[in-house]
Amino acid sequence: MSDFQVKTIDQVTQFGEMSLDFRTMELCRAGQPIQITLREFKVLKFLVSRPKMVVSRQRLISSAWPKRRRSSYRTVDNCIAKLRQKIESNPDCPVFIRTVHGVGYKFVPQEDARPFGRVLLNDGEAS
Predict the structure, then answer these.
(1) 57-89, pLDDT tens digit by residue?
(2) For residue 67, is it within any domain?
(3) In Å, how far from its chain's centre is CA 71?
(4) What domain count does the chain have?
(5) What's the start-to-end Cα distance of the chain, in Å?
(6) pLDDT tens digit string along 91-110?
(7) 108 Cβ partners below 8 Å, 6+ apart?
């Protein structure tokens, strides 16, 4: 299995150099633990469990926030921003958690994490 695939073995999901253990609620980068809140864990687990699927902000609220406490879409956006700081090499240009404008977010395994746009070949021609 290549480094670009998401793989789940005994409730541990690996993507890139990250691993997320569903049982122990631990997030690690290259084997080093990264602090994560319960809310961040729930949101990340929800997204990682649905690779390439667009998940609305409302669905994330329903899955990760208690019903008795109303949360706004901005709350979801803030949680995603914090997660990106922890899992993305460059949070300003996210690879794993992509924004789907006007809808929500989706988790993209690295194999599909290519930059958008045209690729220039060596002779300057676009592909």
Answers:
(1) 999 999 999 887 778 899 999 999 999 999 999
(2) yes
(3) 20
(4) 1
(5) 28
(6) 999 999 999 999 999 999 87
(7) 51, 52, 95, 96, 97, 98
